[in-house]
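Forgive a beginner's question, but would it be possible to get any protein sequence you like and the tokens describing how it folds?
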Amino acid sequence: MTMSNYSDNVSQISKLCDQQGEAWAAINPEHAARLRAQNQFHTGLDIARYTAKIMREDMAAYDKDSANYTQSLGCWHGFIGQQKAISIKKHFGSLKGRYLYLSGWMVAALRSEFGPLPDQSMHEKTTVPMLIEELYTFLKQADAWELNHYFRDLEEARENGDEVAAKKAQENIDNFQTHVIPIIADIDAGFGNEEATYLLAKKMIEAGACAIQIENQVSDVKQCGHQDGKVTVPHASFLAKINAVRYAFLEMGVDDGIIVARTDSLGAGLTQQIAVSEEPGDLGDLYNSYLDGEEIKDPSDINASDVVIKQNGKLVKVKRLSSGLFEFKKGTGEDRVVLDCITSLKNGADLLWIETSTPNVAHIGGMVSRIREEVPDAKLVYNNSPSFNWTLNFRQQVYDAWSEEGKDVSNYERAKLMGTEYDDTELAAMADEWTKNFQRDAARECGVFHHLITLPTYHTAALSTDELARNYFGDDGMLAYVRDVQRTEIRDGIATVRHQDMAGSNIGDDHKEFFSRENALKAGGKHNTMNQFG
């Protein structure tokens, strides 16, 4: 919202009021324009279209320079997403390149009516679009909150005849940046067949999602990407769901919506189905070429329940477990990942997600270089997962690099590098530097356009609550809250210290004054204890 739009709205509403005459005499055009200014997005589709454009521009900027990678943190509640956006604006002045991530893991663990659940698509599918809507409701409220302060500043400056302050307030309004930013939303494995995927994708887009991430696991046995027992589907099944999401975007008028195709093949050793193959070398045949089995040389070796396919010109009895699932050959995960990624990009996906077991630039980069042989502009969304032990991983990576260089590592025990006794060592310092640079390095070397942490705020909520509980219920009592929470809020300029204002009390007071004028019963008078915070 710019002041020119604001001024145009004042003029347009003034004309409307004039046309209505005495009946609208109580309507202040400037107040009505304020209401319009604080609500730029009337529907979730407005948001999806707006944020899709932002992501597309960011993707183009990354293609020109990998330093333009983007980031997000997973948020499990609207308030958490709102405070993240407010914090970024406060510290960096802009939200450019910063998104939100909606994690299926956190929806399952924190938002299901069943209570805490594992990341296995057992939660209600409707909770996903409901959380998207909630996040954007809180982000829009952040717009109203910030603009309300600027408009109050403008009114006060005018009342005081302070032209300098009035000009500054106007500049803040002129240059206002919305807190509404893109959400990459996790649809898991689609919650059913391709029709179910399409229906849920529409709801997510209606709620505001411009980017939907979908994975190639079997929907009804879906597992967290960092758990064992993952089962993938043949490419045809996955591509049908990519098509379903694209159709949903097109139906809803978000023509540039983004699809993130995730492959779990690196850690998945099983498939539920043998792919259909029409001729040697087609996609189904390639998928089946990775199935484990034994060559059949005599038909009498085939039992009644055996499944036999032609693989590389030979009859092969495919290895099948008692569960009915089929096994892939050991060591084929990386090759399957590369095939998955190339196939997805050539069939409608915009971005890739490769779920890995460790955060290793060389490993990720090796796979991406193979993918880029077929699709030169391939880009990744990468999960900087809390499931990795980042400290141990990077200390071991430094240890291994030093060993290869011939550097003396006799003072370190590789398996125990997590120990606090190593915290002040040269190796630990180097590992921290590698960790600090991981996102920059992966953006440059591995085609990672977007770095996210799936469930950081799950951990930060637990950590901060543990600290407060330990001290408050211990000897510190009330000092624990005052010292560790409120005093820090005041000194760091955290807006929530004036929690009534953050929740909309001042906005409500101003609206009451719009509606009731001198009869408004307002909460923000001199007796409101929030005034103690200035």
Summary: The chain has a mean pLDDT of 92. The first helix runs from residue 3 to 20. The CA atoms of residues 50 and 154 lie 28 Å apart.
